[in-house]
Amino acid sequence: MLTKFLFFIISGVGKSCLLLQFTDKRFQPVHDLTIGVEFGARMITIDGKQIKLQIWDTAGQEAFRSITRSYYRGAAGALLVYDITRRETFNHLTTWLEDARQHSNSNMVIMLIGNKSDLESRREVKKEEGEAFAREHGLIFMETSAKTAANVEEAFINTAKEIYEKIQEGVFDINNEVCYSFIVI
Where are the transmembrane segments (predicted)? Predict the structure, then answer.
């Protein structure tokens, strides 16, 4: 089974580092800005079944927004990421979420991620604010650290499990979709 994830995010929140941590189990402190879309993949097991996750890491810069919209089609899940140390990244979540919902399957599973939890002393966005935003918009919520790997595995796996459940319930028809993927916004 193939599952496509998309990362939907604002620029500079650590989305590419999250992807690298999940796919390669390593942290790269200096990373070039994503131009357009980058891709990663990893096999996981859910309920004894091997599932290949395709992970599309989209550019967070406004200039690439129209390009990344085309990647929403066929995405079963999304990780909407903000940086807990930068209030402005949290403030733009509504715009990115509206964009994702407008251009994707209405049943897409979306997890809200507050990244950089290792930088607690520089925190500008309280965990409770992230939880409240997620609750208000029907999202799953988790804080992660790409640097320490805290909750990175869990974020991807938990989102994949939600997608898998929807497939089992018939919400997603895997026979009518080209592929299912994650997008990281």
Answer: none
**Percent of residues in the chain assigned helix, strand, coil, to nearest 5:** 40, 25, 35
- In terms of Cα–Cα distance, which of 76, 77, 1, 9 is closest to 38? 9
Q: Average pLDDT of 77-82?
A: 88
Q: Where are the beta strands (DSSP E) in 47-139?
A: 49-58, 77-83, 109-115
- Give the C-alpha separation, 5 to 25, whole Å: 18
Eight-class DSSP state of 125: S
pLDDT of amino acid 10: 46
- Asked if 113 and 82 touch (Cβ cutoff 8 Å), the reply is yes
Burial of 48-71, coded b for 16+ CB within 10 Å and e otherwise, reads eeebebbbbbbbbeeebeeebeeb
Amino acid at 15: K
Q: How far is residue 90 from each of residues 10, 23, 163, measured CA to CA in Å? A: 9, 25, 25
Alpha-carbon distance of 161 to 46, in angstroms, equals: 7
* 32 HSE (CA, 13 A, CB side): 5
Q: Is 29 exposed, middle or buried (0-12, 13-18, 19+ CB in 10 A)?
A: exposed
What SS3 class is residue 178? coil
d(CA 151, CA 100): 23
Helix (H) or strand (E) holding 159: helix 152-169
